[in-house]
Design brief:
- It is a single chain.
- This protein is of the alpha/beta class.
- The protein has a single domain, classed as 3-Layer(aba) Sandwich (Stationary-phase Survival Protein Sure Homolog, Chain: A).
- Helices cover 27% and strands 27% of the residues.
- The chain contains 8 helices and 13 strands.
- It has a 9-stranded mixed beta sheet with strand order 3-4-2-1-5-6-7-13-8, sandwiched between helices. Strands 9-12 form a two-stranded antiparallel sheet.
- Helix 1 runs parallel beside helix 5 and helix 2 packs parallel to helix 4.
- The chain starts with a strand and ends in a 6-residue tail after the last helix.
Amino acid sequence: MLALITNDDGLNAPGIEPLVRVARKLFDRVVVVAPRGQTSAVSHGITINRTFRVFPQAEPDVYAVEALPADCVFFAMRQLLQEKPDFVLSGVNLGPNMGYDTVYSGTVAGAREGLMHGVRAVAFSLAATRPVPFEQTDPVIEKVLRHCLAQPFPERMMLNVNIPSREMFGEVKGYRLTSLGTRVFANKTALWKDPMGNLHGWIGGREFALEGNGDSDCRYLPNGYVTLTPLTWNLSLPQDAECRDWARGLANGHVKA
């Protein structure tokens, strides 16, 4: 069994260590291909028609790539691996990836790139707003991966796992199957002019601002539960009758130009 690991915080980020450590217990071979530096919030960007450096590390089967998380998976599958991996694992991200995060997140995109190649994929994130010990994720990672290996899920989905940090939410209370809630960024923006008259903009701030009820990840994670959210790449709305009826009217010529 072969696991391909990536992340968006970079090869030297502490969050990737528990994922590699646990994967090496469970898989016959683990290959790590991760961005050389920080690439958070790059979504599913890929590097087209531009070269990027690839840095083999002293440790076998470990590479740092001057590119994005989806690049790492895309490139590894075509150039670095001689066989298709059994799993693509991404993370562990510092900070949750829930709700809208799953669109912005490079961590989720790394796993989603595996999904798009027909490989089972899992993204892991630790819900914390500051650096905390990542060793606390080991038992969750192991539990989830052991179950995934014993009971493989359909290749048309990926799994998004968010782990509440002990420092913010206390000990893990359990696991919940969830839908996506609304992770609202409490972002801050600024606009200023430099001495030459050039305008500069800035976006920052990652404080928690969660909205969600029912079975949503944004409801259960703040209450101390590991959230397990099945995702797919398909952004269509096949079950939304209102949206489909509107589009059907347009397609049938009910809306005149």
